[in-house]
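Exercise 7. Given the encoded structure of a 93-residue chain, write a plausible sequence.
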């Protein structure tokens, strides 16, 4: 089964651009492991979205047994799953 490709818009209110990055943190509960999404944004909105994502990550509470890593910047690629997205540490302000 193929993954359908469609344009993903930047989450920043009023921004007309396509998202280029996913801001997320690795979440796991011992059985499941996934990338918790904080934002999808374009390059121009990245600095503001990065600050907001880090702030929201700090406010997250975890249940016993849950793990939540630091927020990272991941490059969006059409047809790729979260675990296939390259991390862009060079953009993590």
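Solution.
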């Amino acid at each position: 089964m193929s993954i359908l490709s469609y344009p993903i818009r930047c989450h920043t209110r009023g921004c007309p651009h396509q998202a280029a990055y996913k801001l997320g943190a690795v979440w796991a509960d011992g059985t499941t492991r996934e990338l918790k999404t904080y934002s999808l944004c374009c390059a121009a909105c990245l600095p503001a979205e990065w600050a907001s994502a880090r702030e929201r990550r700090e406010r997250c509470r975890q249940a016993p047994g849950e793990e939540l890593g630091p927020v990272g910047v991941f490059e969006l690629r059409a047809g790729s799953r979260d675990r296939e997205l390259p991390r862009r540490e060079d953009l993590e302000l």
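Remark. Helices lie at 46-59. Students should compare their own answers with the one above.
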